[in-house]
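Summary of Year 1 activities. Much of the first year was spent building the evaluation harness for sequence design. The harness presents a backbone, in tokenized form, and records the residue chosen at every position. We chose the following record to illustrate the format because it has been used consistently in internal testing since the harness was completed.
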């Protein structure tokens, strides 16, 4: 159980650090409006994750109750999807590009709402949770729904800490990212390794 959760934290940490729309959005908002506004965006994004966790928790748990073979198909789909994500990352540009031009100033409440709806209305997040979470179920005796909520909580807390760090250190991080081209490459390959590693565990 502990080993599985540690692996989950490590995978989540790598993914949270990897350049993506969410953390780049937090970074730009923090630079333009200030760290308080970046943190409001982070809280919105993480609140949205609760919705996705709930959808996956009750949906997949019902599948497990009805048919174990169908659950295996979901896990297999997860492996294929993670390999697809690894390929997409491989084909993408390793440079971390973000623009603060034309970024409108908003209130903290507006940024919270933006972060929340940006997360909730993104079907890719649900698909990712569906592919990612079932691989880390850690107990045969504990309720599956409870396990999903534990994983969701760990994911949210870990991501919140990292995203908040990005928001607070936005100025320093943006300058560092602009001056160090290799950082994007390192994060790119770390993300690829995580995706392939989890997919391999499922397939093997």
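For this record, the design step produced the sequence shown next.
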């Amino acid at each position: 159980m502990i080993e599985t959760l540690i692996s989950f934290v490590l995978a989540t940490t790598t993914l949270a650090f990897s350049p993506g729309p969410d953390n780049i959005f937090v970074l730009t908002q923090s630079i333009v409006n200030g760290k308080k506004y970046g943190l409001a965006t982070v809280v919105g994004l993480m609140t949205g994750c609760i919705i996705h966790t709930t959808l996956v928790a009750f949906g997949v748990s019902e599948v497990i109750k009805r048919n174990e073979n169908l659950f295996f198909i979901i896990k297999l789909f997860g492996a294929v999807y993670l390999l697809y994500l690894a390929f997409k990352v491989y084909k993408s540009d390793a440079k971390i590009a973000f623009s603060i031009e034309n970024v409108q100033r908003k209130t903290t409440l507006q940024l919270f709402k933006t972060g929340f709806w940006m997360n909730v209305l993104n079907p890719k997040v649900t698909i990712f949770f569906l592919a990612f979470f079932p691989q880390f179920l850690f107990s045969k005796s504990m309720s599956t729904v409870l396990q999903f909520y534990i994983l969701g909580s760990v994911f949210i807390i870990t991501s919140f800490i990292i995203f908040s760090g990005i928001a607070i250190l936005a100025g320093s991080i943006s300058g560092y990212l602009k001056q160090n081209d290799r950082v994007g490459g390192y994060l790119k390959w770390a993300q690829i390794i995580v995706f392939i590693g989890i997919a391999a565990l499922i397939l093997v």
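The mean pLDDT is 87. Quantitative recovery figures across the full test set are reported in Table 2.
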